[in-house]
Amino acid sequence: xxxxxxxxxxxxxxxxxxxxxxxxxxxxxxxxxxxxxxxxxxxxxxxxxxxxxxxxxxxxxxxxxxxxxxxxxxxxxxxxxxxxxxxxxxxxxxxxxxxxxxxxxxxxxxxxxxxxxxxxxxxxxxxxxxxxxxxxxxxxxxxxxxxxxxxxxxxxxxxxxxxxxxxxxxxxxxxxxxxxx
Length: 181
What we know:
Shape: globular
Largest sheet: 7 strands, antiparallel
Number of helices: 1
Radius of gyration: 19 Å
Structural class: mainly beta
Distance between the termini: 15 Å
Helix content: under 10%
């Protein structure tokens, strides 16, 4: 087989496995990329909306010492939801495709009590309840769930403060094949 034909077949095989866009599509919100702020109104960061009101503000601030997640991610900043939330306040909203994996790096604001982070779809139907572990001062918690139908996902605390360090939405491989040839 000549070199050009071999190269063309290799490229076709790679596109069949990974799609024209390459690897899995990923969108994320990372507190390390944000500036310190006290949000008193909704604010949009790369497609993620942090919902806040003057009475139910959300704070972005530094964490010291830095926290390390089980996968080695290190966080120097956090998004403090500051208490229980709803769609209008103390929540984070973002789009997700059906079946996308959503990973959340989080902790309870309490040093002794775990708290529940609710994940709901745009209609308010429950998708998951994630446990935010107590804040040890050294470790960031990590939890995942699958998005429902294409649309919006909303995260908020069921009761009490939760700190969010990052949210990663992975859409998965499009057009993946199990066999080439």
